[in-house]
Amino acid sequence: MIYQELQSIYVLWLRQMKRFVRAPSRIAGAIAQPLFFLLILGLGLGGAVFPGIKTDFLNFLAPGIIAMAIMLSSIFTGVSVLWDRQFGFLQEVLVAPVSRFSIILGRTFGGATLALLQGFIILGIALLMGAIATETIGLAMTIIIMILLSFTAVGFGLIIASIIKDFEGFQTIMNLLLLPLFFLSSAFFPISQNLPSWLQTVALCNPILYMVDGIRGSLTNANNLFSPYLDLGIITLMCLIVWLFGVFLFNRSEA
Amino acid sequence: MLTTLQRPTSGKALICGFDVLHQRNEVRQSIGVVFQEPALETELTGEENLDFHARVYGLRKDHRRRRIHEVLTLVDLLDKKDALVKTYSGGMKRRLEIARGLMHSPTILFLDEPTLGLDAQTRRAIWDYIKRMNKEENTTIFLTTHYMDEADFLCDRIGIIDHGRILILDTVDTLKTSVGDDVISLTCSDLPALQARLEKESWVRHQKIQDGRLTFGTSRGEEKIPQVIEIARLQQIAVHSISIHNPTLDDVFLHYTGRSIRDQEQEPVGKTNRRSSKVIGE
Questions:
Q1: Do B40 and A88 touch (CB under 8 A)?
Q2: How many structural domains are present in chain B?
Q3: Chain B contacts of A86, Cβ < 8 Å?
Q4: Which of A46, A137, B126, B145 would suit a FRET pair with B9, their CA atoms being 20 to 30 Å apart?
Q5: Which residues span the domain enclosing A24?
Q6: How far, in Å, CA of A171 to CA of A166, rounded?
Q7: CB contact set of B192 (below 8 Å; sequence gap of 6+)
Q8: Which of A8, A23, A92 has the CB atom closest to B39's CB atom?
Q9: DSSP B266
Q10: Is the pTM of this model over 0.80?
């Protein structure tokens, strides 16, 4: 029984790896987009002075881009349940004698692996460009936060996939919900006095802020609003809530 | 519902002795399902699709390898096993799905419209595979179809479902006999009048007016044709055309549902059982 569940998790993971490797355009796209952000924004705004940024702008930007790359990739994994449903493969998985929990776990691991892969590539490039971790615990902590971030985002993707049933709805949510949240996450500019106070309040309620802030604090040890440990606590809690809610909704919608 | 993808609103169903509501995993392990729409991962090869399935059903390594070879041989896809499924034709996909359904040696294999949208050649080939696995794998096959000839060719027992109710469930021969040995079909100048008159004859069974034709079942039909024409002549009704044929499943279907099949969406359900049925549906 447990053998079968583990096999299922493994093979669902394996399937996503194979899919990814066999679609070169997806690999290129997944890495290119955050890279453009990092390079173009980082270099273009490199000399600019922002109130609230104590370091080089690239240092400030890199953690945000890492978080963005992981989030987008993971959300996409969660939402790709829609594709499976559309093309019928989901039925094959659902009619199999494995628990729904294992099915989601396999998908989450697959999505997290891909997202982390992208995250690490961006991280590597950022490190090469000079956004350096101050100590080993900083890098280890960054990785832990990256993993939690990816789990949260897959869960969020599952929630979206359970609520909406078509691809257009996904686009709408991306534009109406995710984009503003990203802008208010301090990924691109600091949450400071420049913003009206109500927007600052919104930003502090934004889960993505703590993810970006956590990575920033642990990776660069500068410009962060909160202690990375506080961020980690909040992120862990959020990850549990969002992922489990995603699992719950998936279970309910797929009998 | 029987495949555990939907929950019944009421009632109880057992598959191989397992309750579809409370023993879902046991049921899932006992059945194979081939869906109406293809449910393959097109970015994987044929063999990888089978391997995926085998792992999810808990088959061990040696067993997996042997079984993949067996089922691929059965559906003649051995030489295509390393090609990506997205390069397969419709018929090949269907065959691969049937092979996949058989991977874990299910007691019952569900086939939902297995030949829908396939050309005549492929269709015939699929039929052969279905027959073969029914015999060689000793698998009970539960198939749904709109094609009467398919049901006639493949099934031992046939159930007709109309508006969600099973109207009748019996062997092909019994069903055909229940309509009559022969079916006489005719057109004439006054259908209702002739129908009313023929009602009085003891050898006329299951009279029906359908699409401007009067049909009824009878035995030794060739001897009845002159009698019908004589009766009509005495009633001053002109018979335009008259034909006789052995009952087909179409006649059976029309007899039980009362409408032409193309007027409605309900599915007749066919079943092939070589062994005693273990399916109890409500």
A1: yes
A2: 2
A3: none
A4: B145
A5: 2-253
A6: 9
A7: B209
A8: A92
A9: P
A10: no
